[in-house]
From TrEMBL:
<keyword id="KW-0804">Transcription</keyword>
<protein>
    <submittedName>
        <fullName>FCD domain-containing protein</fullName>
    </submittedName>
</protein>
<dbReference type="InterPro" id="IPR036390">
    <property type="entry name" value="WH_DNA-bd_sf"/>
</dbReference>
<keyword id="KW-0805">Transcription regulation</keyword>
<dbReference type="Pfam" id="PF00392">
    <property type="entry name" value="GntR"/>
</dbReference>
<keyword id="KW-0238">DNA-binding</keyword>
<dbReference type="InterPro" id="IPR011711">
    <property type="entry name" value="GntR_C"/>
</dbReference>
<feature type="domain" description="HTH gntR-type">
    <location>
        <begin position="23"/>
        <end position="93"/>
    </location>
</feature>
<dbReference type="InterPro" id="IPR008920">
    <property type="entry name" value="TF_FadR/GntR_C"/>
</dbReference>
<dbReference type="InterPro" id="IPR000524">
    <property type="entry name" value="Tscrpt_reg_HTH_GntR"/>
</dbReference>
<dbReference type="InterPro" id="IPR036388">
    <property type="entry name" value="WH-like_DNA-bd_sf"/>
</dbReference>
<dbReference type="Pfam" id="PF07729">
    <property type="entry name" value="FCD"/>
</dbReference>
């Protein structure tokens, strides 16, 4: 039965959750629910609001919300129960991990200003996309960009981030600014360190690839403003996931 939590829980969440932007609904909804869990707004063992209510607070469809909840369940953060008193319940938070992987992730996060990295990445990515579109790439450059896009489309999940990096580096290199390309390579290495610390989400990969296709189409069509807007939205989606999992 799709019953939600009590009124107090709904009121607490209504003060924190907000409708997400249309372009990155899944990523931003996931980030917001992760924040709710980290803040302890729903206690261990507590029930989240009903799907219809939670989807309404976030401004997403119930299909999107179910995908968000599926990710959280896969990560061991919530569990779904059936029956009259069923719903989605918060699982008790485990004690902090002490293994080497967790220590390495903490070291990576502590070593960088995540917000600064995300801002710089967005500035460079958006700038590169705009410059490429304005420069009217020639046939050879267009073939390079198409090949990089095809690489992301054909990459299996385990290879997707490497292919994604190559696509973005190709845009930076084709921007005509060696300094921009060098700066982008450096900041992207840091972004990849952070990405290695969060799950690889199939829904996010499909959305990311659709944005890549729109981006390349805008660049090759000479639509600089469109290319910048798509890239800015694309960066915002990645940033939302990183903030959600690492903050």
């Amino acid at each position: 039965m799709d019953d939600g939590g009590d009124a107090a829980t709904r009121n607490r969440l209504a003060g924190v959750l907000r409708p997400v932007r249309a372009g990155n609904g899944f990523e931003e909804a996931l980030a917001q629910v992760l924040q709710v869990l980290r803040l302890g707004l729903v206690p261990d063992g507590g029930r989240l609001p009903a799907e219809r209510e939670l989807a309404g607070l976030l401004g997403v469809s119930r299909v999107t919300l179910r995908e968000v909840l599926r990710v959280l369940q896969d990560e061991g953060l919530v569990e779904s129960r059936r029956g009259r008193y069923g719903g989605t319940f918060v699982r008790p938070r485990p004690a902090p991990a002490r293994d080497g992987a967790a220590a390495e992730l903490r070291r990576r996060i502590a070593a960088v200003d995540v917000e600064d990295v995300l801002r710089l990445r967005e500035v460079l990515d958006v700038g590169a996309a705009g410059l490429c579109a304005e420069s009217k790439l020639g046939p050879a450059a267009a073939r390079r960009l198409h090949a990089a896009l095809t690489g992301t489309g054909e990459a299996p999940p385990a290879e997707y981030r490497r292919a994604d990096t190559l696509l973005h580096l190709t845009l930076a290199e084709l921007s005509g600014s060696p300094s921009l390309a060098a700066q982008y390579a450096a900041v992207r290495a840091t972004v990849n360190d952070l990405l290695d610390g969060i799950p690889l989400l199939v829904r996010n990969l499909a959305h990311s690839q659709a944005q890549h296709a729109a981006l390349v189409a805008a660049v090759l069509g000479g639509d600089a403003q469109g290319a910048r807007e798509v890239m800015r939205e694309h960066c915002a989606g990645t940033a939302a996931l990183l903030r959600g999992f690492l903050s």
